[in-house]
Amino acid sequence: LIRDFGPFYPDGDEGKAWSLERFDLAARTRRGKSSTWAAFGAGSRNALGYRTDWTICDDVVTDVNSSTPEQRGKLREWFNQGPETMGDRHDSRLTVVGPLFHPEDLYHDLQDAILPDGNSMYHKERHEAILDWDEQKVLWPEYRPWLWLMQRKLLMGTLDFNKRYQNVAVDASRMVFREEYVRGGWLGKTQ
Description:
By secondary structure, the protein is α+β, with helices and mostly antiparallel strands. It is built from six helices and eight strands; from the N terminus they run H-E-E-E-H-E-H-E-E-H-H-H-E-E.
């Protein structure tokens, strides 16, 4: 990091921020109240009023904050008032990354945002861990080989596997055939 970015703070300057949540680079060219780099959890009130050149939201949608309409609304409000407004300038960057959890979650809202001219408001990319089921072709063979993915699918169940690794979110409460009905067993448990 030091080779790429230079020293993080000059010797004897303990006034620079340095913690697990934020830090400053000594060679920073822009001055401001916000640190060179900072991290906030989803829903953090500390994100309000923070200014960035580039905001990255990594895995802000979870099974908990996407499980009810109220939770999804709270996360959307946080996103609208926090990360969405953090950019210092009109050309500031906002990157949002994470797997889909619910058909009506924040990620789906962003995917579906259309400008008045008909273009998508955001650039979107969607990746699946399994690219071809018949050929057993996977996205990251050196990190997530076919057998490893099949073990996860067996342990997690199809719905959870599809959320985490295939980016397919299904609201289980709207399914006609529940997984328990197909596999056998009781609701929430399979034999």
